[in-house]
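Weekly puzzle thread! Below is a chain. First person to post its structure in token form gets bragging rights.
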Amino acid sequence: MKQVAPLSKSQYGIYVECINKAGEVCYNNGFIYRLDGCLEEERLRNAIETAIKAHPAFFCRIELNKNDEPVQVIDLSNETWSLAIEQIDDIERIKPLL
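Winning reply:
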């Protein structure tokens, strides 16, 4: 299922800012969390995947329509997203990469 809608004024402003600052990180900021103790990875993965799939906005992207105007497209036809969990032993080495 694919839905197309115009951008809101706020979305359009963010779109213009991102186009003008191509290659820079404007709104996507990475975080690292240290989880101590016993972690049930499969339960964490299932919880996050369930939350993501319940919110169509996570499957939203901006495309240009036939008039070269930006529109938001929600495409639920490819719901194969899954979470990859990595074991990181040296957090300090990873931080500069975010």
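Puzzle host: Confirmed. Bonus trivia for everyone else. The mean pLDDT is 83.
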